[in-house]
Structures are given as structure tokens and as C-alpha cells.
Amino acid sequence: MKRLMTTLAAGAALLATPAAADELRDSLGEKMPALMELYKDLHANPELSFEEVRTAAKLAELMRDEGFEVTEQVGRTGVVSVMRNGDGPVVMLRADMDGLPVVEQTGLPFASTQTATPASGVTTGVMHACGHDTHMAAFIGAARLLAERKDEWSGTLVMILQPAEELGLGALAMLEDGLYTRFPEPDYAIAFHDAAQFPAGMIGYSPGYALANVDSVDITVPGIGGHGAYPHTTKDPIVLASAIVMKLQTLVSRESSPLDPAVITVGSFHAGAKHNIISDEAKLQLTVRSYSDESRKLLLDGIARIARGEAIAAGMPEDRMPTVTVEDPYTPSTYNSPDYTETVMAGFRDRFGEDRVMQVPSVMGGEDFSQFLRNGDDDMKSLIFWVGGVPQDQYDAAQESGEGLPSLHSPFWAPDAEKVIATASEALAAETLRLMAK
């Protein structure tokens, strides 16, 4: 960790004197004022998952202006833009569009005041608390750079605006709506995500597994209710569910390999309604994280086994066994093609400078960008990388004080959008030009 912090500090200092500017960067500089206005508009007008109607329409029109063939309402609110430019590889760039049910507290002059009512039925504020507004602005920046350089590349460019990443459902919705049959199937799929753990403008990457499988699991634990003063006449589901909660931790500590990360978190435990009544049911809600398919199976099979085993040990009759429900579809782990990733990052080091590009640990968060590789050909290459978003002064202050920084999904997350958008636009365009160079 100390080595990582040293690298971050060195990289942060280098941001003030980036690698030598070239024509691509100069061209992007001319476009940045318009991109920042677009970012502010997107930030002020976020929309929830599968409700990105205004956002999709606005960006679709901008893509048409650049000469793309644009199809809207792919996977409900998704947008697919295609530019055919002779023979060559098919390269797909992706940005996600949805905001979150979060009341913004950044104090920005263009802060969101939007409200909406999600599936929970509770009206809430809406905010781009995960930085998808920077993703979309950089996506448009890359599109403009590539559209004006058609004489420099050959192949087919597919640029997709994906809905509902926050639900883990948008990528699959687009695939099920014919993304790979109605439109050219990619040889390469590339995306980025802003990062809340290192300085704005730095690039982070993880070869191989980068983000986790995400499973949501519900366990309903039946009991036999009764009076709290006479527990011997009951089968207490709270005691049984508590035993299940504790035993579940052994799946990670004693059944999973220490070299294969795994997480089981019980996020919700509901039972009972009164002091002196033993309820007849308890409900648990779990999030389960893993990387490999084998690890995922071990955890899910183990959860079902433990729930049943603890119920048997508690003397529950066969017709009162717990039920375990795994939400389907789930978000698969995101895998960066290792050799391809290293090749891309070598190019980024040449372009941005050695100390602005660093390998970072994989995380247990989820990203449904994973679906594009899972559903592609065996030869397809895929990469999602991070672009740091923490304003430099905030990062320096946090390093000095030891205090934490606002995370993604925080109502206080306000990235240095200009550095995120400039870095990501250039990176996406430069790598696409490399892959499709004449």
C-alpha cells in the first residue's frame, strides 16, 4: 500500500506537466469547452435506470451530427451508433447513462435537483453519483475525435450508450435485443469508469479479473411461532437464522481458497414485530461476491447447504426447510483480456507518461460491461480501465489528514470532471486509432 501511495503522489505531481502534447490532444483541447457544457447539462438532468429517455435522445442526436448511423431504443433506452469505414476490425466503445436515487449534496452550481420514484415506490432525488455523466461526455469527445479522422483508420466503429448499469441489467437487455445480430459484433470492447480513490487524470487497470460476480440471495427461514415466555413450544426462526448467518462466514474463511477472494455479506435480517412474540418466519438478504465461476458455484451451493443443514440441526420438519432464492440474471465478473490489456497500457504510458498509468488491485464491485465479453466470440478482447477523478487538492488533503474521500455513490462525489473527460476521451480515441490504423 505504501508503494501504491508513493506512485500516486508521483503521478499526481506529473499531472501538471503531462506527456508531450500531440495533434490529437490539441484537437481535443478545442472541443473541451463544449464537452464541459454537455457534462454540466447531463449532471443537472440525471435519469434513473431504464428511464434515460432525455439523455438517450440528446446523445443520439449528437452522434448523428458526427455522421454515425444511429439506432435508438435498443434494450429499451439504449443507443447504438455505427460508423462503417472500410475493411478492418470492429471496435466497440461503451458508456453507461443511468443515474442513482441519491439526493445530491455536492454544492455544485449545476447540481441535480431532479426527483423520481424508483421501483421502491419512495420518491427520491436523482444524481449522477457514479460519474456516468463523465463517461457520456468522454464518449462524445472520443466520437468527435474519431469522426474527424476517418482518413486515419479503417474498420467499423460501434459506439453504444447503455442503460441500467446500476441495476446490472442494461447490457443484457441490449444483447437480448439483438446487439450482436442487428449490428456488427465487436472484435474489441472498450470502456472506462471514473475512480474515487486516486487523483484526477490518472489511469488504473487490472489485467484478468477486474470486478466481481455479483449475486443477490434471499433466504426465507420458516419457524414455528409462539409466546416469548414459552420458547420450548416453538421453533425460533431468529435463532435459526442467526446460526445460518454465523455459519455462512465459514464458506469464505474455511472453504474458499485464501488466494481466491470471496465475500458474503448479510445486508438485511428481518423477523418479528413485538417483544414477547416468537415469529414464524425470518428473512435474510445477502450479497455474494466472487471472481471465478467455480468460486461462485462453491459459495451459492454452500449457502443452500448451510441453510438446510442448520434447519435440520434445529429440528425443523422437512416441510419447513428454508428456501434460498438466487436473483436471476446476476452480474458476471468483469474480465480484462490480460495480454491485450498490457498492450493498451504500454501505449497509454507512452502517451500520458509512465507515472500516470498504474496497475491497481481488482475490486469486489460489479459492472455489467462483463456481459459483452461473455456473449461475444472466443477471440473477442475486452478492457475496462479506471480514470481517476479525485480533485488534486482533496486528494492531497486526505493524504495529509488521513481522512476518507467521498466514494462512488456518495451524495458528495464531485469528480474533477475536466480531467476525467479529457483523459478518457483521448485514451479511448487513441486506442481505437491504434487498433484500426490504416
UniProtKB/TrEMBL annotation:
Keywords: Hydrolase, Signal
Domain (Peptidase M20 dimerisation) ranges: 211-310
Keyword Signal annotated: yes
Source superkingdom: Bacteria
Keyword field contains Metal-binding: no
One Pfam family of this chain: Peptidase_M20
Signal peptide interval: 1-21
Database matches in PANTHER family: METALLOPEPTIDASE, PUTATIVE (AFU_ORTHOLOGUE AFUA_6G09600)-RELATED, PEPTIDASE M20 FAMILY MEMBER
Protein name: Amidohydrolase
